Amino acid sequence: MKLRISVPLLLILLLSLGSCSYQKILKSGSMDEKYDQAMKLYHQKDYSRALQLFDQLINVVRATDKSQRIYYYYAYCYFNQRDFTLGAYYFKRYTSSFPNTPEAEECAYMSAYCLFMNSPTFTLDQTNTYEALKELQLFTNTYPTSKRVPECNDLIDKLREKLASKDLRIGKLYYRMEDFSAAIMCFNNLLKEYPETKDKEEILFLTIKSYYKYAKESIEDKKKDRHSKTLQAYNEFIQQYPESKFLLEANDLKARNQKELDALYAREQLKLIQLNQEPNKAKQ
Questions:
Q1: pLDDT tens-place string over residues 125-142
Q2: pTM of the entire structure?
Q3: What is the maximum span of the chain, computed from C-alpha positions, in angstroms?
Q4: Residue 223: which of 264, 253, 184, 258 has the closest Cα?
């Protein structure tokens, strides 16, 4: 009589045997057994169990020839589990511990890349973004001939665009709060810091709007200067984006701004005429 075992049952039995073997090595295996099992599990993409074994090895094998490989795979275990904080830490630790190995450049890049992956959306605190920028720039300075430099530059551009988006959001918030002076300062600083931003067209347009509204709410003595700056902002905008999607509204702002300037010049001329007439009246 033949004994029949279903395929699912066979798989369960094999997994159980594998689990028992793993637990036995984890609890009482030799260092070599733990190392071999950890490497096997890593290549099977079982990063969680591989990490438990590497945890037991990493502080024991410091003075052995396996130390370098353990640190390398230990960092990748965290990376492959998307724990980019610890991944960044252990890749950097590998680079500082083994600076002359062939993998040192790779791990320096991976440390910076983990920080890039940890960079949050632009609406949140950007401390991690600044740290990622610093490490990516450090990599390009340390390994200027690396094949990874173009990718680093691409990552740097993405992070800078994220910071520009955050500053644009702040500038828009000032504008909605009708703090036009702060909005103007924010937009101007944004373009100085991130001149390559994809939102440059919108920022220049918002600068025109902010200057115009700032001029409108100003006291009489400040209006002329601020309306003049509105015109300067318009000229810079139209020079760079003559066919802008904001062109109609920008032209309307220019027309209204010019009307305000003309009225200011007219009032100034009237005052001069009145001042010239006063001495003549006194003589009479």
A1: 999 999 999 999 999 999
A2: 0.81
A3: 140
A4: 264
